[in-house]
Amino acid sequence: MMFDDDEEEFTNFYRPKGLMKTLHRVNAQNLESGGLNNFTEAFQSFMTRAKFFSVGRLRRTMSSSALEFMKYRTLLPMIVGNECDNGSSFDDFNPNSYKNNKSFDKNEDKSKVIVTNIPIKVSTTQCKSFFSKYGKIISCELSFENKPINSDGKTMKNTPKIYSTAVITFSSKDDADKLLRVDPNDLKLYGQIMQVDKIDYSLKKSLSNVKCSNKSGLSFFGESSSSDGGIINRYSRTSSTSSLSSLSISTDKIVSWDTIPNRALELIMSYISHVDCIRMESVNKKWLESGIKAWTKTTVLNLKNAKKIGKKFTNEKPLTINYLKNFLQRCGINLRKLDLTSVPNTLDEKTFIIIGNYCKKLESLDISGIRGTVKNFVFLGECLSLKHIAYRNMNDIDEKCFWYLIKGFADTLISVDFSGCKYLTGRCFISLTDSLKELYLDGCYLIESKTIEDICMQAHGLKILKINGCFKITDECLSLVSRTLLDLEIFSLNGNGYKNLISSSICCLTNLENLVDLSFDYNSLINDTFIEALCKSGNKLKKLSLAYSGDDNSISSNGLVMIKELKELTYLDLSGLTAVDSNSLSEIIKNCQQISYYYLRNCPNLDDDALECFVNVSDEITKIDVSACLAISNKSIQALLKNFTYDEDNFNAIILVIGSTPYNIDGLRTRNSRVALDFNDTSSLPEDITVNPSYSEFEEIVQKLNGDVQESNSDEISQEDDFNIMNVKNSYIVGALTSKEESPIFDSHEEMLEWAKKEAAHLNIKI
User: Fold this and answer.
1) Could you give the residue ranges of the DSSP H alpha helices within 431-538?
2) What are the start-end ranges of the H helices in 576-674?
3) What does the alpha-carbon distance between residue 472 and residue 597 come to, in Å, rounded to a whole number?
């Protein structure tokens, strides 16, 4: 009987299924005792337990048992490198599933983005719905850091605000790339602009960053284990005969920095900041060569981007000429775009020489705030072939500098931005060619009518023209623009104070059939006649801004109803207009189904009935701004909250700005609503002269110039008089470029020739 029981037990044990279960149990005991650190000890322990289960039957099955054990052990990779693992996580390990999961995670990583600076009040559902408009979201993980706590266990005061961070996984890589390319202004939620970055993954050669997940498959951490706060854990496939000390030594040798391939080192240096890259170059010759190759991949250098530069320039530690030289010596060879604006600096005239010497392939240059001379701009014109030039808010620069800045790049210029140059008359624009596509003259108060004529005659292919605050233009100028610049797509004439224009003169602009963006903010010339003419001809118009334009009598509700004819509109700004009411707004919402952005700030007649018209708005709506509209209440706001809820077909969030309105936040219910409330007041008038130019400031400049002319002697020749006789063909022979000096006296003919050569070089004349 005993033999029969043993036979039955032996038979059950050596069945394949029963055998593997037993081996699982035996191996778990080995792992608990640390037996696998030595293969011999582990096998002897296995043999002991095998004898216990099959007394008297071990000899003829020993080889089979040993093979099964060795086969089972090969399915336990990287086990000896982690002493915290109890072995239970590998009981159901399948190598094929691990390979599949690894390839799946590799593709999934490309569709992940990380979003920072998220308002703390945003929930996971709201975050997912806000970003769902860029593509289908698979998962959204939202987290935030706790406030720091002092030794007493209380929250510390005067700590920075806490923001949430989300890791969003899209269904495809294209959706993630679409979100990475979006304009930062479109990522504003609850008054904060969120930041989106792609997730960078380190090299995966012999060390990996293993993360816990709830997915089925291989897991390296149990519930009680920890990843040590993000520290990279190393796993080895070395044999179990190796000790832990030898294992750590071999692991350190594998990840030695000296053995990293050159291409991998170049990739690492291309991702770190520029300052850190310069520091790493001093390690050895190999790192220096890799750093040089990494710098050649830099095509854009923006000194405002402290994250990429690795250093934030302040008034105490400004940008110096040595810093700039160190950067351009390394990346200037392939640099295409250089931006030196909005950075505290001590740059001088030497900046232009450094740029000209090191950045031979430069195409876009923004040097706003850096004072230069005629010689500097002549030198740049000889060394570079710029396509985009920006020189904004330069009020202390001589008119001759602008002349040579344009003249040196006239054949290649595509975009010119001289916004905020209050004393610029614009006579330099006679050198322009058909290559120019964009011209920004916002806030250039002294631009003359002759300048607009030169632009129209020289740059026929112009597509963007912004002349906000050019108060000297006349009716003839606008008529010439409408007849010559037939490719114009964006036109802007903001500001109030155009004394030489009448309301009927701007109607000729409706003849421009390719217009897609039109702005007349703060312009008192706008009336119902112009709106009607525009709506009949502007079939391609996508963006229309009439904020604070006209007056109470010139623009009526019936006039705004005509906007319903603009079927392609996606952006509409009617802020500050008394004609905005339920009648006009309902017609616009009903017929213009593609509008995504409504700006109706500070509209006195916009009440609850008008706001409730948005209940019938299309699914394209993204933002509604009704800040400072004092006639709305919780009634209309709650109606929108209740109407736009989450469902299976629509997760798009709608931003409703209600700052400075008589709302009661306690009476609003936002549960399951796609409407995100923004309590910021955006109705304040901008002080930027490029958006809201000041006519009073223009009058002060004119009076100042007239006073200077009256005080000057009659024998003095003003700088503007010098330019009256200059043109493109004979500009190099005008004596106005030199200061007033008496003719020198020469002792010999050789001295006269030497002096003539110096003057010719100064005037950029080749002899």
Assistant:
1) 449-458, 475-484, 528-537
2) 582-591, 608-611, 634-643
3) 33
